[in-house]
Amino acid sequence: MAQIGDKVPMCENLYVARGESDHVDVILSSDIFKGKKVVAAGITSAFSNLDCKYMLEEYSRSYDDFKRRGIDDVVILSCNDPLVLRAWAKDQPGVEKLRIISDGDTDFHRGLDMAYKIPGMGVRCKRYGMVVVDGVIKHLNVDEAGPHSHIISTPKYLLEELDRGSFNN
């Protein structure tokens, strides 16, 4: 599994643009992370109560707190396909500031060694929260795989680490 100090995998992901069209933009992970200080959170499944309530809503509510602490972008990544993520994001109030990224091919999460198979659902990623500075993982909280795990992957713990200033470079 990915560790602090590792570089994030370089691969193509699909940026989920808001709007009515089915258009999605291919975006390289280097475009997301290079030269930036980014909070990235992995969600297991769009439309699940846990990922809506405890992940997406909390990261959305914490967006301004992250920005005040010098974070350039807050990104939500999932192994769901981009059209599912678009429908999910449209259904969630207050998430306009977040970047929703599909890793439908699971290359990014496999590269982090955080992809796993859920019977009947396919490959998903573990829930996690991490701070990435210029493509290097500076802090990483990963919950155990499972439908009810959402303890250390929530923004609360990343905000506490940012307040400690342990990875300001």
TrEMBL record:
Residues 2-167 form the Thioredoxin domain. The keyword Zinc does not apply. Keywords: Antioxidant, Oxidoreductase, Peroxidase, Redox-active center. The keyword Oxidoreductase applies. GO terms for molecular function: thioredoxin peroxidase activity. Its EC number is 1.11.1.24. Pfam families: Redoxin. One of its GO terms (biological process) is cell redox homeostasis. GO terms for cellular component: cytoplasm. Belongs to the peroxiredoxin family. Prx5 subfamily. This is Peroxiredoxin type-2. The lineage of its organism: Eukaryota, Fungi, Fungi incertae sedis, Zoopagomycota, Kickxellomycotina. The gene is AHP1.
